[in-house]
Amino acid sequence: MNNNTTNGTFKEYNEDDILSAFCDWLLDLNYQLDRKGWKHDGDRHTARLINKAHDKGGASSASATLYTDKPANGVIHDYRTDCNTQWSFYKDFLEGKDTSAAAAYFASLPSKEEQEQKKAEREAKDKADEKTAIEAAQSFYKLHNFTPPTDHAYLKRKKVSALEGVRYSGDNEKLLIIPVFKLPDMEHVVSCQRIYPDGDKRFIAGTHPNSGGVFFIGDPADSARPVALCEGYATGATVHQLTGYTVAVCFNSGNLPKAAAPIRKTCGQHQIEQDRGTAGA
Fold it and tell me: What is the pTM of this model?
């Protein structure tokens, strides 16, 4: 932490201090910045993150976004789970650490109306970034139009096939590519789940498949077949191959309830069965 000047009885914190505090928090969660470091856009700072516990070869499995103007806050977005972890400079750093500075910082925050306006501006920026990420996912899926090999390590280990819609990267990474759709639109992907031969799974950076994203195995319009909801592709492929059911792959347990309502609306009067397992496969 930088040695700042003091104003009476409390320490003043500048942008570098906020960045430093946020980076310390990232390290506590076992993350480090990738080699490109921070990308600065005014008071908005973004970076790719490497999880030291499981990322290999400098690959990034998460991103960080930090706003350093008041109220300063940041977020980690995990590409594996599409989950966010929030951080607040005031609540997670100042409170309980520097009482005088926390009180002064709180007193200096913009009005509630100004904070709401700033929040709306940040959300608009995030929405624009998500739109760009979705377009990148669509391009990625369109570009990698290769048929997966039957001897792909992940498919062999799970004893399933690459069913209709699943694609293959055809490069050294040997990725299986599962498209993610947001119902009722079954034409345009909103993300892709990339499955590595060792089973590691990552969504396209900046996309949010956990907001109800789904991949259907079989025909959701076939009213003669029950529809099963599950988490992972391998589980879904197994269920489909053993039962002939149409399967809605929802990717993880947190997304199951979000996807259930649009699935029911899309599938009409189909019998719906939900996976009772605890983990995606």
Answer: 0.78
